[in-house]
Amino acid sequence: MKNLLTYYISTFRNWFTGIPAIQRFRMQHPKLSGFVGGRFDTKHFVGLPLTLLLLVVAVNIMLLSELTESVVDAEWIVVADQKFTDLLYSMRAEWLSVVMFGLTQLGEQIAVFAIGGIATLIFLFRKRYWALVAFWLAMGGVGLSVRFAKTFISRARPSDVAYYEVEHYSFPSGHATTVMALFGLLAYFIYRHNSNKPFRKSIFWLAAVFIMLVGFSRIYLGVHFLSDVLAGFILGFVWMLVGISVEEVMMYRKKKRQV
Predict the structure, then answer these.
(1) Which residue has the higher pLDDT, 21 or 234?
(2) What distances in angstroms separate CA 164 from CA 27, 94, 112, 157, one per listed residue?
(3) Cα dihedral across residues 223, 224, 229, 235: positive or negative
């Protein structure tokens, strides 16, 4: 699949650069055309992979902007939020609430620092210094952006349905943002640096399951609306991509210096 995609991209690039007008532009602006052409190079991460990744980041930021605007303007999403919250509250069972309460602790600060601490020791032991920098840069970005967004939007949490008392504002969900970036990045680092395919696949699906369960637990326990969690997932995904980009770019530059 990867080779097929590369083939089509290379074919399109060869056709596009063969257009007379494009050839004249390349001759008149060699530096600019070289830079633009480098953004579509399929051989290096800083080429097409980074271009596509930045495009995905931009799309997610636009989605987050649209979702935020819908919440602020009290559009249809607010009605859907309340209906979904009421539905889950009417179906709430004590035993499941206890399970969800346990799962939601994975997004608490103490769990994040514990998991992050273990990851830090592993990064240091394996000399993955740029992975360490990328990881904490992303997690720091998560904390700052969630705090800013909560203060700026100032959305109240669901009323009279919370399983336990929670302070601060509701939008976006800090737990959803955190677990998306935390487990997403760790799964990526394992996938990137481990050659055991079954293990990599298991880690990927395990991370996805934990992310979804923690997000659902926030709604089930009545401490967040659905849109809070969706916004958290999007924001966390953006920071996960930032972390991936930092490590991959630094690794590319390191290899380039060694050549």
Answers:
(1) 234
(2) 66, 12, 20, 12
(3) negative
Reported as type and span, the H/E element at residue 120 is helix 109-125
Name the domain count of the chain: 1
Which of 68-77, 185-194, 209-218 is the least confident region? 68-77
Does some domain include residue 210?
yes
Q: Report how far residue 162's alpha carbon sits from residue 169's, in angstroms, rounded to the nearest whole number.
A: 13
Quickly tell me which residue has 């935390």 as its tokens.
182
CA–CA separation, 80 and 63 (whole Å): 17
| Spatial contact of 190 and 203, defined as CB atoms under 8 Å apart | yes
CATH number at residue 171: 1.20.144
Q: What does the chain come to in residues?
A: 259
Residues 202, 194: contact at Cβ < 8 Å? no
Domain membership flag for residue 233: yes
CB-based contact 185:223 (threshold 8 Å)? no
Confidence (pLDDT) at 200: 85
Helix axes 48-72, 76-90, angle to 10 degrees: 80
| Cβ-proximal residues to 201 (8 Å cutoff; 6+ apart), any chain | none
What distance in Å separates the CA atoms of residue 231 and residue 237, rounded to the nearest whole number? 10
For the cut 70, the answer to whether the pLDDT of residue 208 exceeds it is: yes
Average pLDDT over residues 123-131: 87
Looking up tokens 């690794």 gives 251
Residues 6+ apart with CB under 8 A from 180: 211, 232, 233, 235, 236, 237, 239, 240
**Whether pLDDT at 16 is above 80:** no
Q: Is residue 3 part of a domain?
A: no
